[in-house]
Design brief:
membrane, four-stranded mixed β-sheet, transmembrane helix, 49% helix, 7 helices
Length: 154
């Protein structure tokens, strides 16, 4: 009788102290495996410099030239300038380098961008159609600020 009581207590304590912790550890390890984030595959780093020095100097000189009457926006998607349906917007991946906007009327007054790529060349006709002044610049080459000053409306 004592052995049967002893064996039943031994069985209960072995289940309580060996099997239950083993099942808990396996459950926790499975949760860790399935819910961990993959930081190795998608390494995200903070860019210390948003613009290279030439582009930043061009932006500063452009802001100084337009003064307080206009605002300058950088790297603007073309579908924010023109109203397009979803299909046309999906076809046009063009990003405009600099867009000069009037403070008072919120109209686009001047677009300064590089249209040397074939995809971007199709967008040039939109600016002619809506009578928006367009100045083409080539990235990495010097620019003429006097020509830009003459392109701006008074």
């Amino acid at each position: 009788m004592i052995t049967s009581v002893f064996l039943s207590y031994a069985f209960v304590y072995s289940v309580l102290f060996i099997v239950v912790p083993f099942i808990l550890v396996i459950f926790i390890m499975t949760c860790i495996k399935f819910f961990k984030t993959d930081t190795e595959e998608h390494a995200i780093k903070f860019k210390k410099m948003l613009f290279d020095t030439q582009s930043f100097n061009f932006l500063k000189s452009l802001k100084a030239m337009v003064g307080v009457k206009y605002d300058v926006c950088c790297n603007v998607p073309i579908d924010t300038v023109f109203e397009m349906d979803a299909q046309t917007a999906a076809e046009n991946h063009t990003r405009l380098d600099y867009v000069v906007i009037d403070h008072d009327s919120s109209e686009v007054k001047l677009v300064i961008s590089d249209f040397s790529q074939q995809d971007d060349a199709n967008a040039k006709s939109l600016f002619e159609k809506f009578n928006i002044k367009l100045v083409e610049i080539v990235r990495g080459k010097p620019y003429d600020m006097q020509m830009l000053k003459l392109s701006l409306p008074v």
